[in-house]
Specification:
The protein is of the alpha+beta class. About 20% of the residues lie in helices and about 50% in strands. The protein folds into two domains: about 110 residues, OB fold (Dihydrolipoamide Acetyltransferase, E2P), CATH 2.40.50.140; about 35 residues, no CATH class. The chain has a five-stranded mixed beta barrel.
Amino acid sequence: MFETTVAVVGTVLTEPKIRETSRGERVVSFRLAGNSRRYDKEAERWVDGDRLVVTVNCWRRVADGVIGVVGKTTPVLVSGRLHTREYESAAGWRTAVEVEAAAVGLDLARGNRFPGSADRLAAELDAVQGESGVDRPRPAAARGG
């Protein structure tokens, strides 16, 4: 059987849910939305394009790494195996799109929004400035703005 491997860049929509299987394996699941963006020349602005919403399931070591780091609104990159799961609900048969994560990382291109990151960056910049004598700008979050 063929596997479909994907990389999704997006924003976590839900707080991660932690559970354990009957065999004691930890699983962390969360919903992730990835939006494409394009520049509309006529309107002279960026507009949202297609949207992908998936459930991400993290097992074992990936689950352990996600706990305490990833939360609702965290920008992340997820790489893993894409699949659909069919199940029956009160409304009838449903299909869920899921990614079994092989790796989850913070999307550092989308700002300084991670706990303590502005403070760490400011301290590192201060250390570099002291070593080199070069005046370096501080990030807005570290300046209090």
